[in-house]
Amino acid sequence: MKRTKVVDALKLTDFGSTVNVKGWVRTHRSSKAVDFIALNDGSTIKNIQVVVDPSKFDAEMLKQITTGSCISATGVLVESQGAGQTVEIQCESLEVYGLCGSDYPMQKKGQSFEYMRQYAHMRLRTNTFGAVMRIRHNMAMAIHTYFHEHGFFYFHSPIITASDCEGAGQMFQVTTKNLYDLKKDEDGKIKYDDDFFGKQTSLTVSGQLEGELGATALGAIYTFGPTFRAENSNTPRHLAEFWMVEPEVAFIDLTDLMDLEEDFIKYCIRWALEHCQDDLEFLNKMIDKGLIERLKGILESDFVRLPYTEGIKILQDAIAKGRKFEFPCEWGDDLASEHERYLVEEYFKKPVIMTNYPKAIKAFYMKIDDEESGFGGKSGQTVQGTDVLFPQIGEIIGGSVREESLEKLTAEINERHIPMKDMWWYLDTRKYGTCPHGGFGLGFERLILFVTGMQNIRDVIPFPRTPKTAEF
Ligand code: 4AD
Ligand code: MG
């Protein structure tokens, strides 16, 4: 008999017909007269109830069907008597695919997320991780749909690269060299000529530089792929391997860029509310009671657009009035997450797009403010960079208008001692038919954190990579 997915079976109304469902047992309650098996197949957060008359089945076999076991159940679809469900199955035949011993690590309810991380290969079968993974899929669909509908082309930037986009030197090397027998030149430097690519290469920290090549040919592109950072930050917001979405657009200015950031992120959140209702309701109940309210709140609020210099003033006023922060915040300092959260969660109580940062704390490619820039920038000292700051998360998006002048960009590269030989191809965008353009990067897992209400970024990606963790 053809299998019906639980998500579809729960919508059936032709009571009296026979259906087959397959899945993993969430709970099995038995009494003398009747057994109830709650079955889940991952297609939805909801279980279907399989009602078993124990007198019709082998008692020993029934007893072994415990939480985690995989079974196939066929029976008559009936309207449910119990509260909270619409249909159930009066079981006529049962097939066991795989039993699950009492050592099944996801057995008990209420296990901590720390505990479950040790069993990342099994935690996917729990209600919470099922919900998070379905939402993750839906957010990927939202992203592709948004950009497709807005005329952006999906552009595949390379994962192996010889350049360091963010200039932070936090890259994982890619080599086929024998690390036990590294050849060095007279100065003791490693020789890469005979390495696979003939030069030093790494996993990319961002697809932006190649994205700019795409945007200055196709007009508007987006990349969406894995990104790697060897930063040793053991925080609930950082992964060593994460996914980033990077749109890049020709002929865009700072206002257009901020409009795009706000419109895009609202679209994704609206998509979640429309397509992930059951999973969100579950998470709202079990993980974060304010979740759905917060998501709706984002759709209703206009994001604050705040120049860095003004932000610093607000923070300093707060300090003058007695607000304590762990880290200093003088003009020129990079804001710590406590500062960002103060602005977003306490002061404005809505998302903030911070702009026009001091150039020293931002990447080399950002457009330098001049007399005409506006937005509270300081000529020659600030850049047209934007960070979108979100409640609970802090920075969710980082982007900028790009410096399109070859002269200014080259000066910046020289000032920062970025090796020019690795950058020649990037500079060609400015040399040949340069154009105003800009874009941003959204940390996909940070979006998932926000949309699910989960607290730790390790719990919104199937198999997290963090310092000292690469199991599974
Ligand atoms: O602000 P970042 O470093 O910006 C860039 O990489 C630019 N090249 C993007 C662009 O303009 N095309 O990173 C962008 C976003 C951050 O705002 C954050 O959401 C996420 O990527 N992110 C991380 N997410 C998880 N773990 C990490 N270690 C992350 N580092 C950045
Ligand atoms: Mg950033």
TrEMBL record:
GO molecular function: asparagine-tRNA ligase activity; ATP binding; nucleic acid binding
CDD domains found in the cross-reference section: AsxRS_core, EcAsnRS_like_N
GO process terms (BP): asparaginyl-tRNA aminoacylation
Keyword Protein biosynthesis: yes
GO cellular component: cytoplasm
EC number(s) stated in the UniProt entry for this protein: 6.1.1.22
Keywords on record: Aminoacyl-tRNA synthetase, ATP-binding, Cytoplasm, Ligase, Nucleotide-binding, Protein biosynthesis
Aminoacyl-transfer RNA synthetases class-II family profile domain segment(s): 133-462
PANTHER family the record matches: ASPARAGINE--TRNA LIGASE, MITOCHONDRIAL-RELATED, ASPARTYL/LYSYL-TRNA SYNTHETASE
UniProt subunit comment: Homodimer.
Protein's UniProt name: Asparagine--tRNA ligase
Taxonomic source organism: Prevotella pectinovora
Gene transcribed to yield this protein: asnS
